[in-house]
Specification:
Elements: H1 4-14, H2 25-36, H3 42-51, H4 53-63, H5 76-85, E1 92-97, H6 103-114, E2 122-128, H7 131-139, E3 141-142, H8 152-158, E4 159-162, E5 165-168, H9 170-173, E6 176-180, E7 195-200, H10 209-222, E8 223-231, H11 237-240, E9 244-246, E10 254-257, E11 264-266, E12 269-271, H12 298-307, H13 311-324, H14 329-341, H15 345-358, H16 363-375, H17 379-393
Parallel strand pairs: 1-2, 1-7, 2-6, 7-8
Antiparallel strand pairs: 3-5, 4-5, 8-10, 9-10, 11-12
Helix pairs in contact: 5-6, 12-13, 13-14, 14-15, 15-16, 16-17
The protein binds S-adenosylmethionine.
S-adenosylmethionine binds next to loops.
Length: about 400
Amino acid sequence: MNVAIVAELLRRRIGLDPLSLGANVLPHLVAQRMSALRVDEVSVYAAILADSVAEFEEVVEKLVVSETWFFRGGKLFPYLVERIRRAATHPVRILSAACSTGEEPYSLALSLVESGVPREQWELEAIDLSARNIERARRGCFGNSSFRETPLSMRRKYFHEKADGWELDESIRNLVRFHRGNILDADSIAGARKFDLIFIRNVLIYLCAEARTLALDHIERWLSADGVVCTGHAEPINFTDGRFRTVGPHEFFLFERRPVSERTTRRGRVSVAPRRRSNSRPASSPRVPATPLPESDLLIRARSEANAGALETALATCKTHLSTAEPSAAAYSLLGLIHRARQEKAEAEACFRKALYLDPLHEESLMHLLLLAQESGDGQSVGRYQGRLARLSQGGAS
Ligand SMILES: C[S@@+](CC[C@H](N)C(=O)[O-])C[C@H]1O[C@@H](n2cnc3c(N)ncnc32)[C@H](O)[C@@H]1O
């Protein structure tokens, strides 16, 4: 079934790259919805989807990946607490964009309360595309999987056991303002309010390139002059968007605005300029400047181990490299190759996608994704990757 027309509608309205969910998810869902509505033609269904708010929301709720849990990112939260405590001006305004069911903003609220940072020093707001997620976030009742990184003592202290899960104490629930919002819609944040810290974690990876740029346009607009953006580990925006550069310890994926004087353009869009240190930050700012890591030779070692057939060792070396260095397309592509050699197709595909996220022109990763798509008989993806490779070889953007 050719669902391109539906994919295009989703891409325009919510930025979703349907392939990021796997090749069969959208066709399967469209088939299900067509059967529920007794519709035979994809084009007829697409027209219904375009016109009906209820149908569109139904589909969005089925497509969004809502996986999240408390204290995701481990030491990130104590680190942020200290930054907020030492911030030059208060209150520090924080936005959790794409907050899912609320675990992310609640984790920060819990950490701040637990660390005794006065309530007047911070404000927390959270948005998500999914109405159901926002409803669940407000209700604040969570199942066991939300607590995979939560100390039991914390759960005992702040949650009450109910028939359907653990309910967060009302005193903490009242600390976060939730509302529905689309990061592709500039009006999701009303007025000229600015945030000093914006979480945008584990959502950019599901968006197509244009939507990522648009989302980051809005994030930049909502960010205060010396604000910080926090992304997921597979979404280092400094690689794909020249407006941002790393700040603070690398493992936390924090970014600040790159000064305009350091931005350059590539293929008509901003891209990463060579890193320079700026002394323009006010002395009162608590921000820790980024320290460039030395070039790791672990990647070279991992490649030669892989070439020698020592796949187990190569895998470990490559992962060590990725845990200590800034993520790169080269590292993810090599990890993908190692997984491929180990017959771990899903893992390989995920790595090549990450490599492409970091560098949309990474030819080797495109080649391998094409091969994987061919192997699994996914004709639609084969065509897509072939097109991208052809454009690449003609010197165009992929
Ligand atoms: C995987 S969850 C991430 C939750 C949390 N940020 C984390 O890292 O644990 C992705 C969330 O992004 C939301 N989302 C997807 N597209 C969005 C959009 N265009 N605007 C706002 N939220 C969106 C989904 O509804 C989902 O709740």
